[in-house]
Design a protein that fits this description.
By secondary structure, the protein is mainly α. The protein has one domain. It has 8 helices and no strands. Helix 2 packs antiparallel against helix 3 and helix 5 runs antiparallel to helix 6. The protein is globular.
Length: 245
């Protein structure tokens, strides 16, 4: 499969997801609910299994899950530091805005970095075999749409503007192509890629469980929001299962 075609497909899928989220700003709680399920499902059904498979020859599954836990708690620590920098009793609105901007940058950047690793995973898979490369490509494209939605959501919910969201959407959309390009020039040991994927799985679990899920239910604790979360997880699960089956 031509790498230019893969890069363009990943770019368009991510961009479409991001623009979709911008258009549905008035129903953002439903999009957040869907994204929460999608983010957690990507971690459980894609990143962690892929990391375990890549490291199977050298590293036990327990060690990979330990890296996932480290990613979760590392993200928690960085996230808490953002709040500790604020001074709630002075210049409250200014600090809220600053904290929101830091959180948006941290989380959108994490999503873009994950997309970069997605591209690297595709490149590494194709180096192993064409069949594996095609399977990984389908799995990545299946959740690139939700990646675009998630990138938009984390910017908008942290008081970011539409223009800031668009910049991050384009960054996230270009990231897989950049990761894919890197693998064309470097020999990447699967063990190190596995550790990276495990770390980002921890990041995603934290974002979904402590951020997107509570936020989606904060002002709209409705059955439909919960259904959207389950739907987001189901869509990713089915897409990845079909791609790998």
């Amino acid at each position: 499969m031509n790498i230019v075609v893969i890069a363009c497909a990943a770019f368009l899928a991510t961009l479409a997801g991001g623009l979709f989220a911008l258009k549905l700003k008035d129903k953002l709680h439903l999009v957040l609910g869907f994204s929460a399920g999608a983010v957690v499902a990507v971690a459980f059904f894609d990143l962690i299994p892929e990391a375990v498979d890549l490291a199977r020859a050298e590293t036990a599954p327990f060690a990979i899950l330990s890296w996932t836990a480290l990613g979760f708690f590392l993200y928690l620590a960085v996230d808490r530091v953002q709040f500790l920098h604020g001074h709630p009793h002075e210049h409250h609105s200014h600090n809220d805005h600053a904290n929101g901007a830091h959180k948006a940058t941290l989380r959108a950047g994490s999503l873009s970095a994950h997309s970069f690793l997605d591209g690297m995973a595709i490149g590494v898979a194709f180096k192993a075999s064409t069949a594996l490369g095609v399977a990984v490509t389908i799995a990545v494209l299946a959740h690139d749409f939700s990646d675009g939605i998630n990138t938009t959501n984390v910017v908008l919910k942290n008081r970011g503007t539409h223009s800031q969201a668009l910049r991050w959407i384009f960054a996230d959309a270009l990231a897989p192509a950049a990761g894919l390009a890197v693998t064309q020039f470097l020999a990447i040991p699967p063990h190190y890629l596995a550790i990276s994927l495990a770390l980002f799985a921890g990041f995603f679990l934290y974002i979904g469980a402590s951020d997107l899920i509570p936020e989606s239910h904060h002002a709209h604790p409705k059955f439909l929001t919960t259904a959207m979360t389950l739907l987001g997880a189901a869509v990713i699960y089915i897409a990845i299962t079909v791609a790998k089956g």
